[in-house]
Amino acid sequence: MKSSYFLMERDNKNQRRRLLELEVEVGELESVLEKEQQLSQILQSSLHGQLVCPSCLSSLVPPEVQVLLSELATIEEEIIWLERKVDDVRLCLSQERKQIKELSFQKQQQQQQWWQRQRQQKLFLCGLGGRKDVRETEKSPLLPNIERGGRFEKERKASQDLTSDKWFSCTQANDDDETERQKSNYHFSIVDREINADTPNKLSEELITLLVNIFRKLNHSPSHFDHEQINIPKLNISCVSSKSFITRSSTNNKTPMSSSKNRIHAPDYYGVLELADVDGAATQIGASKRLIHVTRSSLDISRVSLCLPAIKRLRVLMQKLCVINISFLTYKQKLAFWINIYNTSVLHAYLQHGLPSSPDELLSFLNKAAVNVGGIILNALVIEHFILRHSFDTKQGITDEWEGLLRRAYGLGYPEPNITFALCRGSRSSPPLRVYTAEDVANELERAKIEYLEASVKVVGKKKIIIPKLLYWHRRDFADDTESLVEWIYSQLPRSGTLKRTIKELLSGESKIPLLKMVHVDSYDAEFHYLLPL
Q1: How many Cα neighbours within 13 Å face the side chain of 174?
Q2: Which residues form the DUF547 domain (predicted)?
Q3: Which tens digits make up the pLDDT trace of 455-471?
Q4: Angstrom distance (rounded) from CA 351 to CA 339
Q5: Residue-number span of the structural domain to which 158 is assigned
């Protein structure tokens, strides 16, 4: 009995002890569960950006987690700060965009007002630094009175009013000028309706093409390059009277611009000279196979009757140029337009004034090579130095008032150095004449540059490299000094070209002569000579 009681009591004690142990274990598990639940809540809050205070974390999470949570809080604060900054920047950009739009609109209005004011005041820039009165400009020797009759006389008077001396005067306030201005305004209103279908670039391209065709018809190319044969006298374009269509033969074969001696020593750009083969036939070399050579001796004024329809069309196009608006053109459109207009002004001046009597008169001739663009008379020098190029004074911040107005109205945003190879003055040292289009003007200028370098840069032996004067004048557009100019020429030539290999041999040779002493600058030949496209 006692033994059974003892056994039962021992079992009860074991059960109570086991129960206590289980209760303790359950309590520990409940505390662990509570901590895990709190940690889960903290992590969930951290995930949604609702962090608790750091003092609450010290007893709940390990130190590593505390570090991560504190870094996360810092990152969240930085993100919030950056988002606010982004919002501020967006607001500033929006305000700046609005201000730019307003300023652009104001600038456009100012340009339109300036344009209208200039057209009303007839501010004609005829010189390098301002205005010049050219009332005494002689009439065109190659634009004769080709018809008679009332209707043609009205058309002739209307067209001559645009190119005569009255349109070049800057100040004339009498009653006759007022009447003439009213007539011209009425005529411009008619042309305005005709020009709607013409864009400025297409008009400039058509002008160049038409002038090239006129010179091609006036050109009479002989079978040999020696045009100065005594038994075949040629007509000199400068001998044509401005008041009649009477020509005189040029009997003086010893003028400075046409002597055979001078031509022998002249630079032979683009294969101008012709080589005679064994049969005596003349053969052109180089790029001249794709060009037509027009010289003083090859122009035949007796062929002007072939150009009468083209001359009438030229007058119509020049009238359209007087009222055209170019304020909306893009950079490439402006670049192609002004190159074509520059070449047009020079070509038209040769028709209007004849050829200069000597090379020394080329500069004064370019000052007379003026065209009316949108009511403003601009000559070739103004177009080149004020619109297409940036003068040295402009780079130094010194700008004339008229130059500044002209640049804002017509000028390019930034200069294009390759225009050196596109502006043709009608001299033997000038590049060939081309028609430039707005769509491909960059590639066209690049091709013109490469062809000019290949044709005009010469290497004599291994001790001399000849650079044309035109390139040397504008060397600052391409290099810092003469030595770097040679390196620039080498870098621009095509890899497969013979000239590039020759210059490479010259630069990498073992010659002890400094490169600067190897460079020789060729003289500029201002003799009249055009290279026209076929």
Answers
A1: 3
A2: 327-453
A3: 999 988 778 899 999 99
A4: 19
A5: 122-258+296-415
